[in-house]
Specification:
173 residues, disordered N terminus, 22% strand, alpha/beta
Length: 173
């Protein structure tokens, strides 16, 4: 059985990324849901946040593979890692779930979401996990005061909130 979760390399153009997220292999049905993991575009974000994003993408794949929908099937979810400049330039893919990784000073999507989403986890003001699961396309923002605490925020999201987030994505899309 072909892998039901599709992901791509970050080098894709905006239109190509949306098309790839929709259907990278024309023999497969379009995905039921989309998730974009958004990192900053600067050197620090590329060095620190992007590896976290790909690790989180693997965790999303694992959660989706363990999920069974109402028809007894594993739902098809298209997950992609992309840069904040792409997401902002595309005016965010409407209806897609977003996970922003990195501090607002390094990620434009984090900067936008940081004052708009409620906090679901914090650790002594060293990191924050912000999430609104009820939006049309749930949104999450994970960041810390440095690379290590941003990694802590992503681990916290993965360990405490990822299964519920995936359920919310599947319910709202």
């Amino acid at each position: 059985m072909p892998d039901r979760l599709h992901h791509d390399a970050h080098q894709q153009s905006g239109d190509d990324l949306l098309q790839l997220a929709d259907d990278p292999d024309s023999s497969q049905a379009p995905p039921r849901a989309r998730i974009f993991i958004v990192t900053g575009s600067g050197i620090d974000a590329e060095r620190c946040a992007r590896p976290l994003a790909y690790t989180l993408l693997e965790e999303i794949e694992r959660v989706v593979r363990s999920t069974i929908d109402d028809e007894g099937q594993t739902p098809s979810v298209a997950a992609s890692v992309c840069a904040d400049l792409w997401a902002v330039g595309m005016r965010w893919p409407m209806g897609a779930a977003l996970i922003a990784i990195g501090p607002p000073s390094q990620n434009a999507v984090s900067a936008f979401l940081a004052n708009r989403l409620p906090s679901v986890s914090t650790e002594s003001r060293r990191y924050a996990v912000l999430m609104e699961p009820m939006l049309d396309g749930p949104h999450v923002c994970c960041y810390g005061e440095d690379a290590a605490t941003t990694a802590d925020a992503v681990r916290c999201f993965r360990d405490r909130h990822l299964p519920g987030f995936v359920e919310s994505v599947l319910r709202t899309q």
